[in-house]
């Protein structure tokens, strides 16, 4: 039984987050940050780190970035260490509520590697729609968005 929740992360969570990024099945789909980079990002006023817990244990995290337009949030990263159990999907729904209720935003956007078939399936399933694409380090990124009300 899933008991997923999200909450604001602390500096103390960052070493675990940096480790989670290195795991196979994650590392190939994200640009990993060093621990120093995580600390720098964490301190930026427009960046929000959320930890994902299941039954009280930290099992992942989000990085969100407020956009200057006042309505959008970049869903910059999700990492879940316990894959295939639906934790990420539950956490994304909770993150969307956080963006709406706590951040006062109405649009979430993300980029996903074209080769990240699992991620693309989940984002599609949760209502994210492609609005563009771009290249990054020779790979195709799909840009997706969702309006939240």
Report on the architecture of this protein:
- With 149 residues, the chain is an alpha+beta fold.
- 27% of the residues lie in helices and 38% in strands.
- The protein has four helices and seven strands, in the order E-H-H-E-E-E-H-E-H-E-E.
- A seven-stranded mixed beta sheet has the order 1-2-3-4-5-7-6, sandwiched between helices.
- A hairpin with a 5-residue loop joins strand 3 and strand 4.
- The radius of gyration is 14 Å and the shape is globular.
- The two termini are 28 Å apart.
- The mean pLDDT is 93.
Helix-strand layout with pairing:
Blueprint: E1 4-8, H1 14-21, H2 35-42, E2 47-54, E3 57-66, E4 72-80, H3 87-101, E5 107-113, H4 117-125, E6 129-136, E7 139-147
Parallel strand pairs: 4-5
Antiparallel strand pairs: 1-2, 2-3, 3-4, 5-7, 6-7
Estimated share of beta-strand residues: 35-45%
| Helix-strand sequence | EHHEEEHEHEE
User: How much is the radius of gyration in Å?
Assistant: 14 Å
Q: Oligomeric form of this entry? A: single chain
Backbone structural class: alpha+beta
Number of helices: 4
Could you give the distance between the termini? 28 Å
Count of DSSP E strands? 7
Largest sheet: 7 strands, mixed
Residue-averaged pLDDT = 93
Strand order of the largest sheet: 1-2-3-4-5-7-6
Morphology call: globular
Helix-residue proportion: 25-40%
């Amino acid at each position: 039984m899933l008991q997923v929740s999200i909450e604001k992360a602390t500096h103390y969570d960052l070493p675990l987050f940096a480790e989670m990024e290195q795991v196979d099945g994650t590392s190939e789909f994200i640009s990993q940050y060093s621990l120093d980079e995580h600390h720098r990002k964490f301190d930026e006023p427009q960046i929000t780190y959320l930890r994902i817990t299941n039954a009280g244990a930290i099992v992942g995290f989000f990085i969100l970035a407020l956009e200057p337009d006042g309505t959008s949030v970049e869903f910059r990263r999700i990492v879940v260490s316990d894959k295939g159990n639906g934790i990420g999907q539950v956490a994304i729904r909770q993150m969307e509520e956080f963006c709406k209720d706590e951040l006062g935003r109405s649009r979430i956007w993300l980029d996903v590697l074209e080769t990240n078939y699992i991620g693309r399936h989940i984002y599609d399933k949760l209502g994210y729609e492609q609005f563009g694409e771009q290249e990054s380090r020779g790979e195709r990124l799909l840009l997706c968005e969702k309006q939240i009300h």
